[in-house]
Amino acid sequence: MSDNKNIKVIYDPLTELMTYYADKKGEAKVAKKKYDTIEEVLKNRIIDGEKIGLEKDLDEGLKKYSALEIINTILLDGMKVVGELFGSGQMQLPFVLQSAEVMKAAVKHLEQFMEKADTSTKGIMVIATVKGDVHDIGKNLVDIILTNNGYKVINLGIKCPVETMLHAVEEYKANAIGMSGLLVKSTVIMKENLEVMNERGIAIPVVLGGAALTRRYVENDLQSVYKGHVSYANDAFDGLHFMERVASGNLEKKKEISPAEADETVEDNLTGQEAKIYLAEKDASTSFSVTLKPQTSNLKSIEQIPIAPFLGSKVVENISLDELFSYVNDVALIRGQWQVRKGKLAQEDYQKLLDEKIYPEYESLKLKVKNEKLLEPKVVYGYFQCQSDGNDLIVHKMTNGELRITNYEFQTPNLKSQTLRFTFPRQTTDRFLCLSDFFASKESGKFDVVAMMLVTMGNRASEYSKQLFESNNYKDYLYFHGLSVECAEALAELWHKKIREEFGIASTDAKEMKRLFSQGYQGSRFSFGYPACPNLEDQSKLFELLQPERIGVELTEEFQLVPEQSTSAIIVHHPQAKYFNVK
How do strand 561-562 and strand 554-555 relate by DSSP bridges? Predict the structure, then answer.
């Protein structure tokens, strides 16, 4: 995808369609005859995700079937085929969601011909992202698939306590609960929720999903905790299969844990931001519980500490979207966020899919984002004097604004400062590295400088994502949400480069974007989400230094950034600073 960054494709599906029918009326008529019966026409409208002319075909179907029969025997059969194609790797997630949109539109049209008694569902699930977790796209995908396969979903949103879930179960007479969460802490909350349900004598079937879970952990470890039934959902269709077993009373017939799943670790399931968050929390739960050996690293201090352009922090707005888009990691976006993967497709077919559908829609989406100002990229960043003290980094918070500094040999006497202390874990083997080692020590008598930043796509991104989901524009929801998340990562990459330029250390930056994404530059940035600085609680100290409220970013009780499309980092200028694990 990176090779296509300079290609400007303006893709308008309506224009494409009008052109097609204007130029090829005869071919269009022939194409409509490929399905001989109304049953085939309606079923394949679902499979093909084709909305245009849907109501006319549904009205034709109503001459032969009742509305309920069309839904239960034809349309749901089409959704079943969609699920099978997705499961076998022959259909990509965006097109699954396109099929779900057609299903939703069909049901909406048919509802006017149904009696109230006909609107009963196959089952009801209460679903929520657990307390403290702000990530909701996985949960929402389950909602979409279940809703369009004949089930009713009570979607309670994010940061949901177990009491709210149980109240909804009672109110709606639900058949099952679905709990979702990205964070490792969310798996702890899930376990606590199951224990609460045990104490209250509740044994409703539960399905758990999220990046920090594995089938083995859920169906072995957590099942041993809960008196009811617990299943693991790797994706939205696993959630559907779970509800089918609930509805049929065949809960025990769940998928066997394969040898590969038995050996699976959480790291195997994660990419990008998810992996960063997981590894941070994992290290946070273990690193500080061990007795650290007294060894220190043999990291050499640098002779010339870069000069920062100012002390304190500043806000930057009006960032060019074109420049931002040039820093988007297209592989992470398309394969990760959008889940458009090769699967069982031949390489030629996969490339054709990218060239003819994905890339044009990507370019169209970027144009829409620019025209409608759907992303509002903002940055707050700053430079702060600091010194290391063992495993700690002592950061001086300047209290009288942005001031140029020219000397790190001593604390500038006329500047008032308060200090914040960050404590990092040290490796107990290998090089015995600690993040604090990359800065001048207190004993050296020198003052070093650390940069910090927080970037966001703004509240508009979250609001528009929600709007798309609630208006049943499922494919657009997936596309926009994924782009907004990756744009936050892109802005972090872009602003890290700006900081290197201000430090005067950007001359060694890699020229190719692919290498830049792989730390092809001096120094590194570490989020509270990397193993080297695993304490998410330290986000509160970063907030004290940068005051990100000025750009509309807040911190949750679990130290997560809101809006979701935001990320923060500590910037280390030392030439030897690269990612490392703490074990």
Answer: antiparallel
Virtual torsion, Cα 273, 376, 554, 544, nearest 10 deg: 90
Contact 4, 359 (CB under 8 A): yes
pLDDT tens for each residue of 455-509: 999 999 999 999 999 999 999 999 999 999 999 999 999 999 999 999 999 999 9
Average pLDDT over residues 236-246: 95
Secondary structure class of 124 (helix, strand, coil): strand
Domain that holds residue 89: 35-116
Distance CA 57, CA 294 (A): 75
Instruction: Pull the structure tokens for residue 280.
Output: 């941070």
C-alpha dist (Å) from residue 337 to 62, 366, 481, 486: 39, 15, 8, 8
Tell me if 21 is assigned to some domain.
no
CB of 135 closer than 8 Å to CB of 181: yes
Split at pLDDT 50, 70, 90, the class of 578 is: confident
- Token pair of 226 as six digits: 């809960």
d(CA 288, CA 265): 22
Q: Tell me, what's the pLDDT at 264?
A: 55
Mean pLDDT rounded to a whole number for the chain: 86
Count: domains in the chain: 3
Q: Determine the average pLDDT of the residues in 519-546.
A: 91
Are both 91 and 160 inside the same structural domain?
Answer: no
209 close to 238: Cβ distance less than 8 angstroms: yes
Q: What is the pLDDT of residue 258?
A: 54
Can you give the CATH number for the domain in which 173 is found? Answer: 3.40.50.280
> 0.70 cut: is pTM over it?
yes
Strand, coil or helix: what is 402?
coil
Give the containing element (helix H, strand E) for 570: strand 566-572
Spatial separation of the C-alpha atoms in residues 279 and 528, rounded to whole Å: 10
Q: Is residue 328 part of a domain?
A: no
Q: What is the largest CA-CA distance in the chain?
A: 88
Q: C-alpha 11: how far from its chain's center?
A: 26
